[in-house]
Structures are given as C-alpha cells and as structure tokens.
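Q: Start with the shorter request: fold the first protein.
A: Done. Sequence, then structure:
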Amino acid sequence: MSSELFPWLVAGALFLTVIGLGLMGLLIGRARRDRRIRRRLVSDEPSSQEPYGNAEGLIDELADTGRSIERLVNTDRETPRLLVQAGLRSREPQTVYYVIQLVSPILIIGLIVFVWVLRPEAAPAPIFLSYLVVGALVGLFGPRYFLRKRAEARQRRIATEVPLFIHLLVLLFEAGLSTRQALASLTREGRGTLPELNREFAVVTRQLEAGGDTVEVLRNLEQALNVADLSHVLGVLRQVDRYGGEIRQPLLEALGALEERRVMDTREKVNATAGRMTVVMVLFFFPALLIFVAGPAFVTITETLRGAGS
C-alpha cells in the first residue's frame, strides 16, 4: 500500500464512522421521542421526570435504538416470536438482546478498523472495505441467528417434554380437575419434571387468573411456541374446554400418534445411520480387510514370479 493512499483510507474510515455515529444519534433521538410519547400515553407523566440521567435510562435508550435497528433488518417481525420461543419473555433479557443488536456491529467494525490501523499492510483497501461490509452484516444478523438457534433448541426440549405432559394431564383429569386447575397444578408441582413447559404454563396460569379466556390463551401459546406436538395437545384442550366432552381418550390417542411418529423418526435415523456406516465400511474397512486377506498371497505370487524371472 502506497504512503499517498493511506491517509485517504484513514479519512474514509473516519468519515464512515462519523456517518455511523450520526445515524445512531438519529435512532437514539427517535427512540427517545417514542419513549416520551409512550410514557405520556400510559402514565400521563411529564417528560422532565423521565430517568434518562441514570444508567437504567441509558440502557433503555440503547435497547430502544437496538429495536430500531432490528426493525430495519427484520421486516417480518420475527424477533418477538423468537424471543418467546427462546424463553426470553421478561424485560431484562429482551433489553440485553436489543443492546447486543446495537453494540455488536459497532464493536466488530471498530475492531476491524483498529486492527487495520495497526497493520495496514496486511489488507489492501478493497479487502479492508470488504471486511467492513462483512463485519457490519455479521454484527447486524449475527444476534438474530444465535437467537433463532436458541429458539430451535428450546423447541426441541419442549417437544421432548410433551409425552410426560400428556400423561400428567390424564392423571389430573382422572382426579376430577378442570383444565384451569390442571394447568395450575402442573405449574406448582411440575417445575422439576417439566422445566420448559412449566415456565410457559406459569405465564398461562397468570393470564387465566387475570380473567383471560382459556381458549384464547391456549391459542396464543400455541402460535407463540410453534411446536407441532404441543399444538396437537393444546388443540384438544381448547376443544374440550369450549364444547365439553371426554378428554382422556383424545389425549391418549394424541399420545399414541405422537409415540408412533417418534418410532418412525427413530427408524429413519437408524436407516440413515446404517447407510452412512455402509459407506464408511466400503471406504475404510473393506480395503483394509482386502489387504489383510489377499496381501500374503499377492506377496507370495510376486516373489515366485520374480524368482522365475531371475
């Protein structure tokens, strides 16, 4: 890299940094305005009483700015659903996520610029700019990628708890409990048995105690979690709560269908594993076995032909 080009690249990097800080300031200003409007609508408090001078107010501003950035990269509004599926329902973890959404691209771009300033000869200008673009994309979409992976992992854990959940529901309904009483009992007693479902049904129980409709609350839970096995069970509970009828047999039928589907999935995994093992045996074990069995005979024939030729 020539010495004449280096100052221009530094100036360009600083110019991009200033533009980024300006855009971040605009987003912070918009987030602050939205917060003031929401506070006035909700609590009718004057804007002068807002706690923006303390650390909590600063974190809230950063989180609101992260939400603004998230709306730019998440046009389908997938993040709120992923937060629920990942178990991040409360305000604190969601605030942390949105702060990470804001800070991660700034940190990655700042790290790339810092490393480049220390060693400018390691990357020419086009490569440096490509690193900046890739770093910005990773900072913008990386948090949502890890959030999606966490949500998928938690969905799998919830799916593994569904069979035991059905068995407990059958026992509670046979004991004469209603749907609300059964869910409340599972919330109180199932913390160690159903850790993931217990957290979700604790929210459901609070909503029901606040006067929520059982059918609507269970439908919202089904749409939020999006776990196929659990959706079938919640559909049975909604139907029985609305229209009445016997619930033990539908739950047992759902359990039977679930176990049958899991047996089929296990067989598919076993067949796929057998196919992969066959490929491994053909590529590695069969040549080794061929050398072990036919090797001595091949050596003997080679030595015999060599002796006959001499």
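Q: Next, the second protein, separately.
A: Sequence, then structure:
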Amino acid sequence: MVFDAKDQYPSQWAAIESIAGKIGCTAETLRKWVRPGERDSGARPGPTTAEEQRIKELERGVRELRKTNEILKLASAYFAQAELDRHHKKSIVLAWGSSRSAAHCRSPLRHTGAMERASAIRCCSLHGRCAPPS
C-alpha cells in the first residue's frame, strides 16, 4: 500500500503516517514493515530478509561451536592432567620397587635399593608411613 501511494504524498513518511492511521497501527510499526520490503525488492541497500535470517542462523551456529570448543578444551585439560597424574604415580611405584625388599616398610609400596631406602626413610618418617630400619 505504501509503495502504491508514495506518489500521492510529498514524502514516504507522510504516506506511512496516512496509511498507518487507516489500517489501525502506528506509523513506526508500518515503517518497520516497509523497510524490509524495500530491501527485499532491491529499492533499499542492505541484506534481504532471507539473508538476515541466514546470518542469524550462522551466528547461532558459531556460538554453539564456540561453547562446544570451550567444553572440549576443558575436558582435554582435565584428561591431560589425569594422564600426568597417572604417569607420576607409576614412576613412584617403579622408584619404590617391589614388596620383597625393605622389610621395615609398612607402606603398601615397599622401597628397594640403598638410595631408594634412604629417601624413603626420610619421606616416610615425615609422613609416618614407614618405620626406620632397626
């Protein structure tokens, strides 16, 4: 209606105000309906309604991917730390040796070798897990 009547009024805004009163809405509401119609028909520069919808979908997808990426980064860091902890515990078990040596040790992980026993005695006596050899 606005496109057809714009020649009968001195400006597009005058046409919008006149037609808005006739159809029972505000001039601003009608203007917001006219602008996308002008862009869709090519009379006004800017993205069409379909392009705006596609842009919104793509932006939503980007937000979801960023959230997913952040979750994956946190999970990766968590599992990397768990793997480091696992390797650290394994190296402690290998350093302390088998349960046949160092009969003085009351720890579930028994110490082997002179150097390991000496460090284990210092470590365990601090933590109260092993008694020094008698």
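Q: Describe the second briefly.
A: The chain has a mean pLDDT of 76. The first helix runs from residue 2 to 5.
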